[in-house]
User: What shape does this take?
Amino acid sequence: MKAFLARNAFPLAVFAIAIAFLGLFFLWPLLKVFGASILDASGRQFTLANYTSVLSNRFFLKGLTNSLGIATAAAVCTVLVGVPFAFCLARLPIGGKAVLLALAALPLVLPSFVSAYALVLMFGRSGLVTGALRSLGIPFDSIYGATGIVVVYTLTLYPYIVLPVTAAFKSIDVSVEEAAQNLGASRARMLRTVTLPLVLPSILAGALLVFIEALENFGVPFVLAEDRPILSVEAYKLFVGETTDNPASAGVLGMLLILCTVIALLVQRGLLARRNFATGARRSAPLIDVSHALRRVGAAYCWLVVAAALVPFIAVVVISFMPFSGPVLHTGVSIGNFTHLFERSYRPLTNTLMLATLAACGATLIGVPIGYVITRHRSRLSALIDIVATSPFAVAGTVLGIGLVMAFSSGFLILTGTWLIMVLAYMVRKLPFSVRSAGAILHQIDPSLEEASINLGVPPALTFARITVPLMLGGIVGGFVLTFVTVASELSSTVVLYSGPWTTMTVAMFQALEGTSAGVAAAAATVLIICTILPVALVYRLLRRHELSML
Amino acid sequence: MTAITIERVARSFGATRAVDDVSIAVRDGEFFTLLGPSGCGKTTLLRMVAGFCALDQGRILFGDERIDTLPPHRRNTGMVFQNYAVFPNLTVGGNVAYGLRARKVSPGETRDRVARALKLVQLDGFAERWPHQLSGGQLQRVAIARAIVIEPHVLLLDEPLSNLDAKLRIEMRGEIRRLQKLLGITVLYVTHDQEEALAISDRIAVMRAGRVEQVASPREIYDRPTTPFVASFVGTTNLLNGIILGREGDAAEVEVAGNTLRLSGVGGNAGDKVILSLRPEALRLLAPGEAAPPRCVTLTGTLGEVEYLGPVTRFSVTLADGATLSLMALMPPTASGTVTVAFDPQRVVVLGVPV
Assistant: This one.
């Protein structure tokens, strides 16, 4: 026993920290939300009344069907857009692939509600394009509603399909396709009966991520749903509005959101259960020789998708430098919006930078050792930690935020209103990415390198510092920056947890949207875009693109 | 320069007994090889000596010192890994100096010893290069230099040649042997390649399913295998079932496939079953009408497939009971149909009763 403890001191210490951190700041808050949903107003008596009252309420039921419908539609649309894109990128001889792939991955780090807001600026009731169309006599109803939300999700979430599916298309063993053709299948038949089924697991995995993201997203429906109920938004509104100590209805909505995610996960698992297609490609499948015209079509399609996804962001940046009077846009160049944005304080910007830096440090410091231990010390315990550490991605930011407030507004540890509770929420939310990304980096570092170092007389802890960390450094820095930028554009838990002095850029933009200062919102959006693009561009060489889809 | 004593060592992974009560005594300065098919436990045993795999039972000593209780970084073994494990973030010089720095050797001495070690593996002038600029064979040399520069008690090599192409493999194994003799170091070497093991070793332990089948010199392993597994794993051989008919002192009459052979040095009593091992190169196909050479015994059968392999021709003869003999000869056979195979009974190895 003593020898076991001595030999496994490092993994055991890491697991203890992981369990303490996740237990306190992830599982405990979720338990609070669950408790609120099954307890009566006194907070002592078990009841299902909260569920029956929410589920018999037409408004909330509509919210549930809206959320599920939109998330499903988003998953289907991203698959329809993303799979052909991935195919062109992986298998057709088109130029500029590196650039295309980089641009296609970009929406993952950009705040999606900025894209939504850009659509409002262009296609909203008083939008630029809407106005232009109307003046030409073409009737155009505005972008608001389910259609608009699905469009934004499609344009911002399609990388979740493109990245894994491109990799899957590339990893198909050439001989499998050749065998199909040798047995008499035409090229079209081969694609349908061999190639597509082989990439199906990746498509489903990507579609699940899109579904979860769309379900939990707060900013996009907030901008585009108007008065249509959406679960993640309604949970927030209920929670902010509820005055009792026991936010029962918000708890029920939170549990419903988690339940939807769990069901989606189970459905995906079920579909994948008997489809383990590790082909172990010796030689990856070659580019398909197609006619010049088809090649052009493929290239045009890819560039069109990339442009459609990025134009909203470019439009916001352009518009932010144009003068506004109230909600009305004028032509010209002005930095008025920015002076307006920062006239009271630079705090939102410095808050964002500080909180994102702290959260990225925290997630890296906790996530990298967990990822290391899970990868290098396989056991039942590490499998369990793996599941717990990666499950925050399935929990909506709003729900986690509500849980954190409920858990830490009274009792032994009071954190509400502090910057710390925000950083903790971000750390929990980004932990899956840190853990998975560290694991992926480690998979490419042969364990014999560490053994060689130990064999040459360097003790394990020192070996970790001298050999493992330097080899992982590039990947760790890349993961750190990705965590930083995604935290900088985080809204769903921020909006629940922030307090006055700790207003972030996303909240500043959110407040500007609630008011009528469209110009300030555009300026805030531009600042956010810069905060995310700049760090990513600086370390782009260090990023491992296939991992982006784990964000 | 240390003897290695492995005493009743065992390790299970789940239900599999990877190493099953193994005892081996490697002499000081000996080149000792663990040979066996994949999964036989040879690498596990090597990793036990290095300290990367814990023992369920038994103990391991270097000289008189028990080392299986020491952590791996305190055992002073030099290990060469199958994939070289050259640190990609250090130069060649940095890699070779790595173990010396861990031992707090002074910078001046480190520089001298690194230079000497690189010279030994014929990489002088490579100290400033980076691993990604080197070929597989050069990486291999770096790994060896890194392992010997610390003057380890024993040098451990885990299939070090398996990632090299055939020609380089032969060159490198000669070089490893040369270095071992030059330094007089004890080597524990793991391979699944029987030709490599025969060419390089002082002694070989043939392993199978976690157990040692035979420990002997290469010649003895090949000429006097003690189990059917060793006979068939090292080189190719023909294994024939026989029955002892009777005995006269040291000699015994053994019936094999309808033929009666007089063999000397056979244990066992009348009625015992035995297995005979006949190496293909010990068998000779007689030309039509040719008499058997003196002292040789003969078997008759039907000539089967003939494979022309360039320097030699391989062919098979099916005996009366259906057993097939594989033969090798410099010239293609001239006979056909029913043929006679002659061999010196001295070259027959009689193995125990099949279990």
Notes: Residues 58-91 of chain A form the longest helix (34 residues).
